[in-house]
Design a protein that fits this description.
The complex is a heterodimer. By secondary structure, chain A is mainly alpha-helical. Chain A has helices at residues 2-29, 33-38, 50-57, 61-93, 95-110, 113-126, 133-156, 161-169, 174-185, 187-202, 206-211, 220-231, 235-270. Chain A folds into 2 domains: 2-48, no CATH class; 60-234 and 245-270, Orthogonal Bundle (MetI-like fold). In chain A, helix 4 (61-93) runs antiparallel to helix 5 (95-110), helix 5 packs across helix 7 and helix 12 runs antiparallel to helix 13 (235-270). The radius of gyration of chain A is 23 Å and the shape is globular. The chains are: A mainly alpha, B mainly alpha.
Chain lengths: 271, 289
């Protein structure tokens, strides 16, 4: 009995700790700046869209949103494409060659971002790829590739080898077996990897911070970081930005919650 | 097994990118670390191990950042693992309410850490923030502090935010571990008349060791590499009290343009992470064997 009450209290307390800050910033995003200073934590008396409007009108939030969509979609697509081909080849090679390739990519997961960010910066500058969204995609694909190879080849190793041997005796080419057998059967792990990557790349701050200085090329997290300097303590405006930047992930989370939890857990534990 | 030559084409695009934009920069970081390159000028010279000597003997800020790193890591690992374990045990059954609560606790994981940083900069604001408003409303005005503006507590305030954002994430790992423990073992414990604490000590805890090691390993590395939160909340201040290695490396390279020195710092940073990882793998093997 007592145990039940304590349990409920503990669980609700933590739920409040998680929810209160999130609800507060959503509410704040709908407050006018004057009202905010008079009443920083209460509900808004005059519900207003002005902060959102100014995000899109004064801050070209639409452009930044588009940049983020472009970078995220392309990066995730190419990582999944390249990593699944590599995982397929690792599985088909097997033996020493397979292990060697697997080791080459897994080693990449051990290297922290901070270690190669400086030489990467100078390489990207030399190639004149700074301030280019395509350049950002190229770099992001390369640095997030190892995790994807790791997860996908972990899964593909469990596929039946005989299936592919039979296939190749029947004259099916590698490309055909990859697209018709390996990919369709690996869909669950491809989906989990995709979700993990979507969250990572949509939210990524460091690489855009390193390579993007031009205003029109900013991604959402980078734009948010710059607002901090411009708006200083205009919290309602900043929070309208936070709400816009988080909206796609939050919506997807509400719809695909189970897959999110599974995908992010798989990605983070292995990565 | 005979495999077709075509398979090499499968490796080509990904491996090429990986070698050019990941392996090559990582290795050239080692080379820069023994030069005095400023990141811009075309000529620079070889300085041998000088950077490493300076870093380990004469750079007070480096040792301060390392100390902050360890402090931050210790608080986060202890608090986050303990909380995650408690909530995992409370939410282990797959009831509707439990699944809903798990999803809620997990929620901060999907928000960008830059957004989390803004949320908590506001929460901690000495005059406008909810934290001090709440403390004052329950009569604890003396507890209302300048959470991220005070050199003595700023690092812990940010550690709390890290815990807030990631407890739900590692809780999921514990839940998976708990659910893998066979029900019969609890049955046996009950028949033998074991109490709640004894059951936890004798059944749950030992069988949970592998998940616990994963959680601790993951949390250690994650907290060691923290960058966005600190970068956006305090930028390493006030008076370097929240400067950790990752932000210090960034500042050395991109504010002071000491690319060579920053590369040497990164190499040491990587060695520390590798050391921690190896130690933990040893521990994991020791415990599961």
């Amino acid at each position: 009995m007592l145990h039940g009450i304590v349990r409920k209290l503990v669980l609700s307390a933590f739920a409040v700790v998680i929810l209160a800050p999130i609800l507060l910033i959503v509410v704040t995003a709908f407050k006018e700046s004057n009202e905010f200073y008079a009443n920083p934590v209460g509900l808004p008396r005059n519900f207003t869209w002005i902060n959102f409007r100014s995000m899109f009108r004064d801050q070209s939030m639409g452009l930044y949103f588009g940049n983020s969509v472009f970078v995220t979609l392309l990066t995730v697509f190419f990582i999944l494409f390249f990593a699944s081909m590599i995982a397929y080849a690792i599985m088909r090679f097997g033996g020493r060659k397979g292990t060697l390739l697997y080791g080459l990519f897994s080693a990449g997961m051990m290297v922290p971002v901070q270690v190669n960010m400086i030489p990467l910066y100078s390489l990207v500058s030399k190639l004149k790829m700074t301030n280019s969204l395509t350049g950002l995609v190229v770099v992001s694909v390369s640095v997030y590739l190892p995790v994807a190879v790791f997860i996908l080849s972990g899964f593909m190793k469990s596929l039946s080898k005989e299936l592919f041997e039979a296939g190749s005796i029947d004259g099916a080419g590698e490309w055909r077996m990859y697209t018709r057998i390996a990919l369709p059967t690996s869909m669950p792990s491809v989906a989990a990897t995709a979700i993990f990557l979507f969250v990572m790349i949509w939210n990524d701050l460091l690489y855009p911070l390193l390579f993007i200085t031009e205003k029109t090329k900013r991604t959402m997290p980078l734009a948010l970081l710059q607002f901090q300097g411009e708006y200083v303590t205009n919290f309602p405006a900043i929070f309208a930005g936070v709400v816009i930047a988080s909206a796609p992930m939050v919506l997807a989370y509400l719809l695909l919650q189970r897959y999110f939890v599974a995908g992010i857990t798989a990605g983070s534990v292995k990565g | 097994m005979k495999t077709s030559k075509w398979l090499y084409l499968f490796l080509l695009p990904g491996t090429l990118l990986y070698l050019v934009f990941f392996v090559y920069p990582t290795l050239s970081g080692l080379y820069y670390s023994v030069t005095n390159w400023d990141g811009i000028s075309p000529d620079y010279s070889f300085v041998g191990l000088e950077h490493y000597r300076t870093m380990l003997t004469g750079d007070l800020l480096f040792s301060k950042a390392l100390g902050n790193n360890l402090r931050f890591m210790l608080v986060v690992v202890l608090a986050q693992s303990a909380l995650a374990l408690v909530f995992a045990m409370l939410l282990v059954k797959n009831t509707k309410t439990n699944i809903l609560l798990r999803a809620l606790y997990f929620f901060p994981t999907i928000i960008a850490s830059i957004s989390v940083a803004f949320i908590w900069s506001f929460m901690y604001d000495p005059t406008l923030g909810l934290v001090n408003a709440a403390l004052k409303s329950v009569g604890l005005s003396s507890w209302a502090l300048n959470w991220i503006g005070d050199v003595h507590i700023a690092i812990y305030s940010i550690a709390f935010v890290q815990v807030w954002a990631h407890t739900g994430q590692v809780m999921i790992i514990f839940i998976a571990g708990l659910q893998a423990i066979p029900e019969d073992l609890y049955e046996v414990a009950r028949i033998e008349g074991a109490g709640r604490w004894q059951t936890f000590r004798r059944v749950t805890f030992p069988l949970l060791a592998p998940s616990a090691t994963i959680v601790v390993a993951y949390t250690t590395i994650q907290s060691f590499k923290a960058f966005d939160l600190i970068f956006a909340m305090t930028g390493g201040g006030p008076v370097n009290s929240t400067e950790i290695l990752s932000t210090y490396i960034y500042h050395t390279a991109f504010q002071n343009y000491k690319f060579g020195y920053a590369s040497a710092e990164s190499v040491v940073f990587m060695l520390i992470i590798a050391l921690v990882t190896i130690l933990q793998f040893r521990l994991l093997r020791g415990r599961t064997a």
